[in-house]
Automatic annotation (TrEMBL):
InterPro entries with a match to the protein in the record: AB_hydrolase_1, AB_hydrolase_fold
Signal sequence coordinates: none
Domain called AB hydrolase-1: residue spans: 19-252
Family named by the database record: Belongs to the AB hydrolase superfamily.
Any Pfam family: Abhydrolase_1
Name the record gives this protein: AB hydrolase-1 domain-containing protein
Superkingdom to which the source organism belongs: Eukaryota
PANTHER family reported for this sequence: ESTERASE-RELATED
Length: 271
């Protein structure tokens, strides 16, 4: 097993001619795709991996400087694709990884056939002319809460983000993967995500982008999906799904997975 494969817990399933790569968001790991994989494995070659810093990775490998920007994650993704001789993959990225895929596609557009972006945001903080969904003070308060009592923070954060109470299976699952992260790493990744501004990158993304968005997502307003659509450099399409929460592939798979499969199977048709 190669160093990249081992570090990111890379798994390759299925054996189709087309490769689908699944990238997870903050606070989760590749297990977030458990409802989706069975629908893909008979038709596609699937590559699953864990972002550095996920609770399933070795915390000693987490470089706080490298992962202070999304470029660090993008270079990791490119290294994985090169290691497994991937060409023109369909990349399905959730949240953090949707933007990681976008940046990687700027560096190496040849590696991507299209991007499917779930709950994607180029910036979470509001500005005078942009609505990202959060005020800076709210982000600061969340970071303070994480630092003071990480376990307590999870019990409040997970239900809000997933959309449900602590008894729901999806909230429990997200809480589990959040709890598996080392608190200082979780705080660092959280800060990176909630302070980045990737709007200036969007015009350079020329790979087709399929933007899939929950109709009610605490972290990403629907307006952000439309902003992406208007500002990406290549073809794009938006589909708003009648789901609640930031992790619809986990909390509402019966609604979300058919939509994702449709976007995997069909390219954007010129109107």
């Amino acid at each position: 097993m190669g160093a990249i494969e081992a570090a990111h817990n890379v798994r390759v399933l299925g054996s189709g001619d087309t490769t689908v790569v699944l990238g997870h968001g903050f606070g989760t790991d590749q297990s977030v795709w458990k409802h989706m994989v069975p629908h893909l494995v008979d038709q596609y070659r699937i590559i699953l991996y864990d972002n550095m810093g996920a609770g399933t990775t070795n915390p000693d490998y987490f470089d706080f400087d490298r992962y202070a920007t999304l470029e660090g994650y993008a270079y990791d993704l490119i290294a994985i694709l090169e290691e497994f001789n991937v060409d023109k993959c369909i990349y399905v990225g959730h949240s953090l990884s949707s933007m990681t895929g976008a940046i990687a596609s700027i560096f190496r557009p040849d590696l991507f056939h299209k991007l499917i972006m779930i709950a994607a945001s180029p910036r979470f903080v509001n500005t005078v002319d942009y609505y990202g969904g959060f005020e800076q003070e709210e982000i600061d308060q969340l970071c303070d809460a994480m630092e003071s009592n990480y376990k307590s923070w999870i019990s409040g954060f997970a239900p809000l983000v997933v959309g449900g109470d602590m008894d729901s299976v999806a909230v429990q699952e997200f809480s589990r993967t959040l709890f598996n992260m080392r608190p200082d790493i979780a705080l660092s990744v959280f800060r990176t995500i909630f302070t980045f501004d990737l709007r200036h990158f969007l015009a350079r993304v020329t790979v087709p982008c399929h933007i899939v968005q929950s109709s009610k997502d605490l972290a990403v307003p629907v307006a952000v999906a439309e902003y992406l659509h208007q500002n990406l450099g290549g073809k794009s399409i938006v589909e708003v799904v009648a789901t609640e929460g930031h992790l619809p592939q986990l909390s509402a798979p019966e609604l979300t997975i058919p939509v994702l499969l449709r976007h995997i199977q069909h390219d954007i048709v010129d109107a």
